[in-house]
Design brief:
By secondary structure, the chain is an alpha+beta fold. Helices cover 12% and strands 28% of the residues. The protein has one domain (2-75). The strands form 2 sheets. It has a 3-stranded antiparallel β-sheet, with no helix packed on it. It has a two-stranded antiparallel ribbon with strand order 3-5. It is globular and about 35 Å long.
Amino acid sequence: MKAARYHGKEDLRIEDVPEPETRPGTVKIRPAWTGICGSDLHLYLEGPFPPAPSETEPHPLSGETLPVVFGHEFSG
């Protein structure tokens, strides 16, 4: 599947990524639209800011490192 992945300041790439697995207690959906929130835009334009992840420092809550996928805001 295609995903917009953030690699760093002003570096957003559309890349092929594996489809996520459906685990117990989860569902797979096919969103019609996705978007980015204001903090995603700030991250893109200004670069990482705490607690944003980097290539070497993971996000303190999610444990993710760069690149990350934007677009957790979606519609139907």
